[in-house]
Amino acid sequence: MKKVIMLILILPLIMVGCAKQDNIKENMSEITDLYFVGEANGDYASISVGKREEPYIKDGISQKKCDFALVCLNLSNNIYENMRLSAVIKINEEKHNVLLELVGGSYMFDLERTLKSEDKILLSYGENTINFVNKGVEFGIDQEKALEIGQKELKTQIDHYTKRGFEAYLRVLGKENPEFNELFWCFTLVGRDEKVYNCIFSVKDGTIITVS
After folding, report:
1. 141 in helix, strand or coil?
2. 101 contacts 107 by C-beta, under 8 angstroms
3. Distance (Å, rounded) from C-alpha 134 to C-alpha 116?
4. What pLDDT, in 10s, does the model give residues 140-179?
């Protein structure tokens, strides 16, 4: 009888915890599943692969989701003379002519598709060719664990916005940001009032770098 009573008491707590987990996942406006990197002659490139909202607007409202594979290229000389850069992306045996656009100091292009961890990917532009490797396989903290850490560190904010409305983002920060020489997870919460909260931590062991 005591076991039955304990089960009755514990069950609602389990249900609340599951509901919070589902609420977070339903409100993920961007989540990175795979992360590729590559270098050539000092130039650095990455490809973030996952799901994002469409349209992509940070307003605290998470809308329908679509696949994305964001190519980001940084030139070693930091000279960006043109707003657009012609390139060829080769995925296994498929070749795609693309036009990367200059956004915030990086050339970017969204392939608007998903990729597989074992895909062979090459980016060719000018005289350079970058061969990508799946860096995510080296992460000590995978996507699911990263979500757990982000939720734990921003629990107060999540609880505050649960009824008010919010959206969340889980991204990988790399050399595209001059502040970083290694990779970090970034869990971001955006409230319906458009206030933004970030938690940045190591992809290796989850060490918290900053919460703001």
Report:
1. coil
2. yes
3. 9
4. 999 999 999 999 999 999 999 999 999 999 999 987 665 5
Q: Residue 187 carries which side chain, given as an amino acid letter?
A: F
Rounded to an integer, what distance in angstroms lies between the CA atom of residue 25 and that of residue 191? 15
What does the alpha-carbon distance between residue 149 and residue 132 come to, in Å, rounded to a whole number?
28
Q: What are phi and psi of 165, to 5 degrees?
A: 105, 135
Token duo for residue 81: 């003379």
DSSP string, 177-202: STT-SS-EEEEEEEETT--EEEEEEE
Q: What is the pLDDT of residues 90-131, one digit of tens each?
A: 999 999 999 999 998 899 999 999 999 999 999 999 999 999
Nearest to 29 by CA among 196, 169, 190: 169
Question: Both tokens of residue 140?
Answer: 């000590």
Q: What torsion do the CA atoms of 196, 200, 206, 209 make, to the nearest 10 degrees?
A: -130
State the Cα–Cα distance between residues 184 and 56, nearest whole angstrom: 22
Q: Which residue has the tokens 């989540």?
A: 31
